[in-house]
Write a structure and sequence with these properties.
- The chain is mainly α.
- The chain has two domains: 214 residues, 3-Layer(aba) Sandwich (Rossmann fold), CATH 3.40.50.620; 88 residues, Orthogonal Bundle (Tyrosyl-Transfer RNA Synthetase).
- Helix content is 51%, strand content 7%.
- Strands 1-2-3 form a three-stranded parallel beta sheet.
- The longest helix is centred in the last third of the chain and has 29 residues.
- Tryptophanyl-5'AMP binds next to strand 1, helix 1 and helix 7.
Amino acid sequence: MPNKSNPKVQQKPIPAKGKRLVSGIKPTGQLTLGNYIGALRQFVKLQDELKDTEFFIFIADLHAITTPQDRQELKKNIRSVAALYLACGLDPEKVNLFIQSEVNEHAVLGYIMESTAYIGEMERMTQYKDKKGKQPEGIRTSLLTYPALMAADILLYDADIVPIGDDQKQHLELTRNLATRFNHLYGDTFVVPEGFFPETGARIMSLSDPTKKMDKSNDNAKSYIMLLDDLGAARNKIKSAITDSDGIIKYDVKKKPGISNLLTIYSSLTDTPIKELESIYKGKSYSLFKTDLAEIVADALRPIQQNYFEYINNPRLDEILSQGAERAQLIASRKIQKVFKKMGLGRIK
Ligand code: TYM
């Protein structure tokens, strides 16, 4: 539960409902460059751009247990994701940062969303179809129902905007459908949220097979760059990324997925349009391009890693998380009361 005992944590008043932004990251393994470009970097940009918007950013630990997790590893990963959020530039003055399981209302609304969704909708989710084959110990029920929990995460805060990568698009669509269905059944209750996808970098691909998403669960460690990778290792992964043999630096996802992915990474990290990169590197070799990109990636990771080590063992991290959870819970509990009332649950008049 959120920190109720720490008198040092000052509680801010709940602002009148302006716009709200919600997003989360699952603490399974370490975060990748894909998570950074598709999600984390967007949160940081948006926090500075959207002045009238309240941010709720969380560590989606309840989502992690849809597959088996080692207790100690999970604990470590939760803290690591929290520190990485801050290391990447999230400002706790602007953002409510918290751990999902510390706000019980997520699970409660998750159940209500399960009671709004149909099994067929869950079975159609591509992530479920992909992951269910990889569960040798049996498929946990929550792997199927997890999109209902994700819908709850978003609807609990009446989010207007949800910044995510491409792979979460289908879950967001489901969330919109569930919100609309619930509103129709019980009267206006939830805001129907909009997804926000980065212009470039919504799907960073594997470095060893650029037709697949960069994913930390891949067995080949050369296929992804982790935010905490040693800088030399990260450079080498870029240099050994799979490309084609025609030697022309041009964006063409179908014919040249490898170099297109590297152009996307370059463009995202430097905010340079891909067209401009194509003209800068016209006639230049892949090897020169990769060497430059390796430095750009190292330059992006270096400050994140420095900041990370400042946060990870710092009690300030706990203060930030407690404050975030407390604030999130205030808003979430009001919403749950409203939902119960609309549905006729409990004794609320
Ligand atoms: P997760 O933890 O798999 O990923 C976190 C975020 O990173 C994005 N992402 C990528 N973006 C670009 N290229 C990639 N290769 C790449 N890999 C991951 C994801 O799209 C995501 O935005 N279910 C979610 C977590 C979640 C959530 C939420 C998100 C739970 N509740 C509510 C938003 C709102 C998940 O598993 O993301």
